[in-house]
Amino acid sequence: MMDHSQSHLDGAEFLTAETKGLGEPHGPAMLGQTAEKSYQGNTAVQRSIPYFQDWREAASLIKTYGLANLDQSLVEFERNLSAKGATVLWARDAAEANRHVLEIVREHNVRRVVKAKSMVSEEIELGHVFESVGVHSRETDLGEYIVQLNQQRPPHIVTPAIHLSAADVGRLFTEKLGEPYTEEHAKLTDIARRHLREEYLQADLGVSGCNFGIADTGTLVIVENEGNAGLSTAAPPVHVALIGIEKVLPGIRYLPQFLNLLARSGTGQKLTTYTHLIHGPAPGKKLYVILLDNGRTNVLADPRAWRALHCIRCGLCLNSCPVYRRAGGWAYGWTYMGPIGAILTPHLVGLKEAGKLPFASSLCGACGEVCPVKVDIPHQLVHLRHRAVNEPSPMNSLSERLLWRVWAFFMAGPLRYKLMFTGVRIGVRLSKFLPWHPGKLGAWTRGRALPEVPKGSFRGWWKKQKS
Ligand code: SF4
Description:
This protein is an alpha/beta fold. The chain has 22 helices and 10 strands. The chain is globular.
């Protein structure tokens, strides 16, 4: 099995042997089927609402308004939450967020942690931080629990165990938990529930993400289906909520718009089973809220990119993407994968690190069509591609630039063009006599047969037809 638990992979490399998930025997096929099924189901739910396009438009406008006033909303959010007894901390980057968490761990003598599903905690790699200081941390979302037991990173932002079948999970529970083998969903859920109950009871700290923050009421909103987020935030004496700054909405009156869209697009439900609105710490308990920037203000400052911050992490663009369905989430090498990952990651970590990701798309436009908050993903991919070939990035190496210069030279006139293709024809013919597969090119040539080269050129053939 692949070990994705140690650190993030290199986002500069898309679909390397290490990242494409071929370590799982049925992983890629299972992931493709499940993503396709979710896409069909969730888009059918979207289509069943006659005014769904109006909802999208309204949500997009609210997000635009919210982001334009984010500075004020964040201050208001902090003020209102603090007034209710929560401690609000700001984190410029992942390192600062992790430092805050470690200080809380020290202050409250934390030994055991339960974690509800949180993409931000994945983003800052909090699990490894706990591990490095000897704190036991347990994922409690069923899918996250499974991938944690399997020592993997989630390959999907909404359904973390999308690549595994019930039989895979049954075998895993037998191997790791010593439970009798079963592939019945209800029994598997029961096993996880039994083991997780102990974790909640023993935990000193609960960590959660946040789907939305509400500025005018100072509210944290967490949506979920399993009840694990409710238990993780309420059972331990201390709760740390991690929230990306872009998730803060100006007012509670905007929330229903997003709840309507998120559940329908993410899981095909009208509403998730639980919607938690946390207005402050419960009596006798502590609540810390960490507001994470980690590159988001850079995205906000980019007039071509800021709409990426509309994203409510429903995961539908992943399910709609033909590249994601075949490559899987690990191929992107970072926390956020699929189309949203291909635009968000280069903004968050830089093009030098993740400049290949915008090219991991066929530009079919499916992601932009289904996005419930109208993130203009295809346009952003093209914009990032343009930047990637003009700024320092893996797509702007010396060899890449040289290659395109040579190409431009030969394409600049009919004689040069003719010369180039005569050369190519001779080269292809000669290549048949070369048994070797040179260097990096070998990985490409080994799996491919070059086409037969016609005797004459198309121009020659055309001339003959006319004469
Ligand atoms: S970009 Fe849109 S479709 Fe993709 S995860 Fe975000 S909200 Fe969902």
